[in-house]
Amino acid sequence: xxxxxxxxxxxxxxxxxxxxxxxxxxxxxxxxxxxxxxxxxxxxxxxxxxxxxxxxxxxxxxxxxxxxxxxxxxxxxxxxxxxxxxxxxxxxxxxxxxxxxxxxxxxxxxxxxxx
Length: 115
Fold this sequence. Notes:
CATH topology: 2,3-Dihydroxybiphenyl 1,2-Dioxygenase, domain 1
Largest sheet: 8 strands, mixed
Order of helices and strands: EHEEEEHEEE
Number of strands: 8
Low-confidence stretches: none
Number of domains: 1
Strand order of the largest sheet: 2-3-4-1-5-8-7-6
Strand content: 35-45%
Number of helices: 2
Structural class: alpha+beta
Distance between the termini: 16 Å
């Protein structure tokens, strides 16, 4: 298993305003916009930041999204570690397979792979 990328997720109330603020300060461009989540990135997509109002299908917003090569194996690892699964392993309509777990500090982590 390898981690492909890690993206912090900032919960915001006014998505257009947050996008404008972060673009002007950080110089990042919009690379994904689903209306409830926008991801900003540099030209090489090495640096990414997601801004989210309310997650569309999960009961809460994650603090970070981590893309992995084998989300099913990571889901099993979370179960084996007896971590709380906040959002079950799900194939989402926007082309990712993901689950959320809560770590011992209470942080919600979104683990995903692209379909």
